Amino acid sequence: TEARARVAQAREARDVAALGAAENLLRGGLGQLFAVAEAYPELRANEHFMQLQSRITALENAIADRREWYNEAVNVHNVRIEQFPDLLIARPLGYAEQPLLQFSVAEKADVDLKALFGS
Asked: Which of 27, 53, 78, 103 is spaced 20 to 30 A from 34 at the CA atom?
């Protein structure tokens, strides 16, 4: 719930960096959930858990697609505000270069279940 609250706050503040950090916190919690499921085969075999896991995977894919779309839009914006004739409007109106949404390799990595459980 803390991670979801941080995501909501970042969305309201329109803070891309905070949103990325909050989504990583949420992803970490989901990784721990899946790690626990690995330790309990009967849970992994549960139909509802399998549906949950499938839904989460679909959501992660959708989020990755949106991040890619966002970065593409930012890239187009950053290029256009530097090109003529767009710069004639962009500069006086204060349009500035925007940062891409970037994540470290560690943030993108899969959860290492062996490291979590020491097996």
From this structure: 103
